[in-house]
Design goal:
This protein is of the alpha/beta class. The chain has 32 helices and twelve strands. Helix 20 links the parallel strand 3 and strand 4. The longest helix has 41 residues. The protein starts with 25 loop residues before the first helix and ends in a 10-residue tail after the last strand.
């Protein structure tokens, strides 16, 4: 199914009415093979497209002329007076006009297929908005159908029902029993009749639409003529139990008749101001809000024209003009009727007889026919519209299996299950019993839907998407905001409790669809809005205003193969501290020799990995002729504006074989500290990822210039570290994280030496240079900062920082410890300080073994011939080095490094979860890179998860 394929060949009735011929059902259309004779004949018999009048004006007018125009226009003027009645119309039409502008803008944004307002909004704004608005449309139609059924029952009982107070009937036709249960029975019968029509097919109603329209227009003409043609008369008022005097006769008495005075100034003056009193049908006191709720039902239905989008000759031309024409026409008719009623009928008649238009008509049955035809057609079309919306929602699978039964259709394509569900809900609403009882609920639903449409249009406008360019341009974001504010204010004026509950329900629907529905191809307005806002704020993020107080780590983690890097990826996610986190990967290759970019197909696997590990990271992939050049690319171009990586994290270069952690079920990818994985409990398998096999695995042959499966050499690896420092990036080398399991580390067994405690060890001193044993240089402070950040993460908050202070004999241990404690106090870092004497280790350092010379450093028996030869060549060329200054890299002995390594291991009681060590700068002479890397390997041997850290920028301050 393509984006242009119609969702339904039915039209959806999104508010109150529906008319026009039906298109063939979607199922039938899909069953016909292209080029078949049956399909060609179907195309030839395709109904003629509708014009503006028949396609937009007629359904919109029929939607708006229903209960209010025949049964509630007198109620409106009688309760609120002419001034407030006109004010109500102005407010109501202001709200719907703002919404009409939004509907016209959305409906004219591109080619429209059949499917109605729900189809347009869902495809324009994505499933969250579309689905939630669709459900609200459905509920509004259900309640609206019940509203019109109750209005029809009220008209029938008023004409043919026996008075409820037991008095004699004033007409020989008043034979029907009356009362709550009898009214419910009549309403049920009418709803069943609507159900039968809908089950047979909507085409029956569609053919009668124009006839009903003519009847309604004719009755309206007779009403206007009657005000002038009928003389003054006295009208007997209907009785109600609500107004019965008390049993002893001492209660208040009410008039039994009222006057139609004709045009009189006194009558007009008596009807100008408000006089709110009890509603004789419900017995409740009327207010501005309750009267407005009843009146606003006459303003709903403005979306009937947009629902005809699939049947119009030119939707972009017809919908704006037809809808606006209908709105203006109904506004004029309502105000004219209000003025005529206020001039000719006294207040008692308006307040006590809602069907008075029948009594003052030139022929009484005219109004009865108009009421019956308009309310029955509106009730039926609401039921049809509700079923079609439910069917469309079910077809879109936004709510999964919950609505799957509603997909079933008859052979002719009629969604009979949706019709039955809609009818059942209408029947439930009918138990409310009175029209005025549910009027406020229906009004709030429609107001909420209108506000959502305005919000949708506002979101499209604010998103500034280039493809949102509707041909209807008479709207701005101001009209959308006014519409939203107007709808919200009136909702809470009508009933604050109902309004709050409706908004909460809609937000719940939006969240449910957002998190539970499958990904759609419609496009998400949320993504467009996020992009617009992020771009705006990124431009405001000025790197020139950076301050050390607000520094945070922004990490670029280079990943060779995610299969072996799961532990490191999850750990680095903890130390980013709400900063930028980028997973980088370099693929070797030359685009000149490739038919297409090989990276595009890999992004889905990387993004699935991010979702699977539940981390907050971006993915950056690059193609380069070497790993070093690729990392340079990423360091230069990763990020935007003020959000750029300031820290490079690399895995350690050693000979450990990687292990695949993406296929091991025991690997927990949750960010919780619970060692048991949710995926294990549910029996779910981890998602499949299309990553290459690991080096050394059985299904992959070793490759690469180094013969061991590696594509990176010693020299290039150290050169990458040096490049990053030249670019003023902090560098972190991570070793022994291939077996790191976050959940297991954070929840050690209580039988462990630390009794379940978690420790993080920090050695903030350059262990390769005892003479530069300072705790306050930039690199040491950066190391302390990262350790502190890890300790601030919720999962690591219970971990204890252990800071090791290396001291030599002859120096004040207490003084050094106090100074370090004072520094930690000023930096607000909570850690335990442990003095560590290391005289024996320092004695092995070349600086303490007399004046430096070019004697060959002690070598371990494992030194190979190639390494001896390389060291000899380096010493022969020592004079080439600047000023012949001794290189620390060439002078360090393996004995010293082994002693320091043992010192670190001896202090680990109980063993820590992770260690933070000082990473010295690589030597300036590139010939020393191999020796430098070997020293780091000896220093960190068997230490467990270890971070070697070098900071180049200040990241910490004691100032406010």
């Amino acid at each position: 199914m393509t984006e242009r394929t119609p969702l339904l060949h039915y039209r959806l009735s999104a508010s109150v009415n529906e008319s026009g011929p039906r298109s063939p059902p979607a199922d039938q259309a899909l069953e016909q093979h292209p080029g078949s004779p049956r399909k060609r004949s179907t195309q030839q018999r395709q109904p003629k497209k509708l014009s503006i009048f028949f396609g937009v004006v007629v359904p919109t007018l029929l939607s708006m002329f229903s209960v209010v125009v025949f049964l509630r226009i007198g109620f409106l003027v009688g309760q609120s007076g002419l001034y407030q009645a006109i004010a109500m119309f102005l407010v109501a039409y202001f709200i719907i006009c703002m919404t009409v502008l939004s509907v016209c803008a959305i409906s004219t944004n591109g080619a429209l297929d059949a499917g109605g307002a729900y189809y347009m909004i869902s495809r324009a704004l994505g499933p969250e908005f579309g689905g939630s608005i669709g459900i609200m449309f459905f509920l509004a139609n259900v309640c609206g159908s019940a509203l019109y059924v109750l209005g029809l029952v009220e008209a029938i009982v008023a004409s043919f029902g026996v008075p409820e107070d037991g008095t004699l009937a004033t007409s020989p036709y008043q034979v029907l029993p009356s009362g709550y249960w009898w009214s419910l029975l009549y309403a049920t019968a009418i709803a069943l009749l609507c159900l039968l029509v809908c089950l047979v097919g909507a085409h029956i109603y569609a053919k009668a639409t124009f006839l009903i329209f003519l009847v309604v227009m004719f009755v309206l003409c007779t009403i206007f003529i009657s005000f002038f043609a009928v003389g003054p008369r006295t009208i007997v008022l209907p009785r109600s139990d609500t107004y019965n005097p008390t049993a002893n006769g001492t209660g208040p008495t009410f008039p039994t008749s009222a006057n139609f005075t004709g045009f009189k100034l006194g009558t007009l003056l008596g009807n100008l101001r408000a006089d709110y009193t009890l509603d004789y049908t419900t017995g409740t006191m009327m207010t501005f809000a309750t009267v407005f709720a009843v009146m606003f039902n006459g303003c709903t239905g403005i979306m009937a024209g947009s629902n005809m989008s699939g049947d119009l000759k030119n939707p972009s031309y017809a919908i704006p003009r037809g809808t606006i024409t209908a709105v203006i026409f109904t506004f004029i008719i309502y105000n004219l009727l209000s003025v005529l009623v206020a001039c000719t009928c006294d207040r008692v008649l308006l307040q006590r007889d809602y069907s008075f238009l029948r009594d003052i008509n030139i022929w009484n049955p005219f109004v009865t026919i108009g009421v019956y035809s308009s309310t029955f057609s509106a009730a039926m079309s609401n039921l049809i519209g509700a079923s079609r919306i439910l069917y469309a929602l079910a077809r879109d699978d936004l709510f999964g299996k919950v609505l799957s039964p509603a997909k079933k259709t008859s052979y002719s394509g009629n969604p009979w299950v949706s019709v039955l569900i809609s009818w059942f809900l209408v029947q439930l609403v009918l138990f409310s019993g009175k029209l005025n009882t549910i009027a406020s609920i229906v009004t709030i639903f429609f107001l909420l839907v209108y506000a959502a449409v305005d919000l949708a249009c506002l979101a499209l406008e604010w998103a500034s998407a280039p493809n949102f360019r509707p041909t209807f341009r008479y709207f701005t974001w101001h009209t959308c905001v006014l519409g939203i504010v107007g709808c919200a204010v009136m909702m809470f004026l009508i009933n604050a409790i109902y309004a709050s509950a409706s908004i909460a329900f809609m937000l719940l629907l939006l969240l449910l669809i957002h998190y539970l529905s499958p990904t759609s191809s419609w496009g998400y307005i949320s993504q467009a809005l996020i992009f617009h806002q992020v771009r705006k704020y990124l431009l405001m993020l000025d790197v020139r205003k950076d301050h050390v107080k607000f520094w945070r780590p922004q990490v670029l983690l280079m990943v060779s193969n995610p299969r072996s890097s799961v532990g490191l990826i999850t750990f680095i996610n903890d130390i980013k501290k709400s900063g930028l986190y980028v997973l980088g990967h370099v693929q070797l290759g030359d685009l000149n020799t490739l038919p297409s970019d090989p990276l595009q197909s890999q992004y889905d696997s990387w993004l699935s990995l991010v979702d699977h590990l539940n981390i907050k990271a971006f993915v950056n992939l690059t193609l380069a002729d070497s790993v070093r050049h690729g990392i340079q690319h990423l360091l230069f171009i990763s990020g935007l504006g003020g959000m750029r990586p300031n820290t490079l994290v690399l895995g350690f270069y050693d000979d450990c074989l990687p292990k695949d952690k993406l296929i091991v079920p025991s690997v927990c990818t949750s960010q919780s500290t619970d060692p048991s994985c949710a995926s294990e409990e549910l029996g779910e398998q981890p998602p499949l990822f299309h990553f290459a096999s690991l080096r050394g695995s059985s299904d992959r042959k070793d490759y690469g210039e180094f013969g061991d499966g590696k594509v990176l050499g010693h020299q290039e690896y150290v050169a990458i570290i040096a490049d990053a420092m030249k670019m003023l990036k902090n560098v972190v080398l991570a070793r022994y994280f291939n077996n790191f399991d976050r959940a297991q580390v954070l929840s050690p067994p209580s039988s462990s030496p630390g009794k379940g405690a978690v420790y993080v060890d920090v050695w903030p001193v350059n262990l390769l240079r005892p003479d530069s044993c300072s705790y306050v240089d930039t690199c040491s402070l950066f190391l302390l900062q990262l350790a502190c950040i890890l300790n601030m993460v919720r999962a690591w908050r219970k971990a204890t920082l252990r800071l090791f202070l290396c001291v030599e004999e002859g120096r004040s241990v207490r003084g050094s410890e106090e100074k370090l404690g004072q520094l930690l106090k000023e930096l607000r870092i909570k850690a335990q300080v442990y003095p560590v004497p290391w005289d024996q280790q320092v004695a092995l350092h070349w600086q303490r073994q007399g004046e430096w010379s070019k004697n060959q450093p002690s070598q371990s028996p494992a030194t190979t011939k190639e390494e001896k030869k390389q060291q000899t060549e380096e010493e022969e060329n020592e004079d080439d080095y600047v000023n012949s200054f001794p290189s620390n890299t060439t002078r360090l002995s393996d004995d010293y490094l082994a002693a320091v390594n043992k010192l670190i291991l001896d202090q680990a009681r109980p063993p820590p979860a992770v260690r933070f060590l000082y990473l010295p700068r690589p030597p300036a002479d590139t010939r020393r890179y191999t020796a430098y890397l070997r020293h780091l390997e000896l220093l960190t041997e068997d230490l467990g998860p270890t971070l070697l850290i070098h900071g180049v920028t200040p990241v910490i301050t004691t100032d406010l």
